[in-house]
Specification:
By secondary structure, the chain is α/β, with parallel strands linked by helices. It has one domain (about 5-215): P-loop containing nucleotide triphosphate hydrolases (Rossmann fold, 3-Layer(aba) Sandwich), CATH 3.40.50.300. Helix content is about 50%, strand content about 15%. It contains 9 helices and 6 strands; from the N terminus they run βαβαβαβαβαβαααα. It has helices at about 15-30, 45-50, 65-75, 90-100, 110-130, 150-160, 175-180, 190-205, 210-215, and strands at about 5, 35, 55-60, 80-85, 100-105, 135-140. α5 runs parallel beside α6 (about 150-160). Bound molecules: adenosine-5'-diphosphate (ADP) and magnesium ion.
Amino acid sequence: MSIITMASTKGGAGKTTVAQLILGVVKKRGFSVGVIDCDPNQTLATWLAYISDLNVECSPARDHSQLVAEVKRLNARHDLVVIDTAGGRSQEMIFAIHCADLVLIPAQMSNYDVNEAVKTFNIVKGAGGMTGRDIPARMVYTGYVPKTQVGKEVRRKIDKHGIPALKTRLHQLVVHRELTFSGKLPSNGTAAAQAELLAQEIYDQGFLPCMLELRKAS
Ligand SMILES: Nc1ncnc2c1ncn2[C@@H]1O[C@H](COP(=O)(O)OP(=O)(O)O)[C@@H](O)[C@H]1O
Ligand SMILES: [Mg+2]
């Protein structure tokens, strides 16, 4: 029903963490989620299989040649399909961008993250140009530290490049690192509230239609 691809040419930008938070909120609201992990490190797939107790179907497809068929298969079975990709440029990343209803481009608070976010945004726009479909993309600020100069610099540069960013900023919080060991997504406090706000904002922009169905039903 809805396909969200996580992409940034930079490793360590926050792709897998943002994927975990979004799929956690959508699952918590009672919807089904399918995941395709194209990262050869299989970070998200391993977390889902061995660390988290979330019941999420995770496709073993890693290769671009299998990706489109797998996306179609999971999309028919689930309310949301999340595709996580590796840093750098890969065939898988390009295919995953083409399949997406929305591409999320996370960036932590560094010039390196911003440079790669700009490159990634241009890749998404270039991919859209190839097929004549404007592929929606949004930046997600993560590891954000409010009221800091670096936060201002990052926002200034992203704005200068005209990259649309989600208003919800995920703060730098240790719970995001803890979940890599515990498997537990934040259930209260700032991290949980920000994850909810992020999903809500994505819904408000029309990219999580399954959540609309819940509203209609209730
Ligand atoms: N908001 C955040 N606060 C604190 N640590 C974060 C945050 N977002 C990501 N991290 C940490 O940064 C590292 C890289 O994030 P990750 O999601 O694995 O990036 P990517 O998937 O883009 O390589 C991980 O150790 C993760 O726990
Ligand atoms: Mg990752």
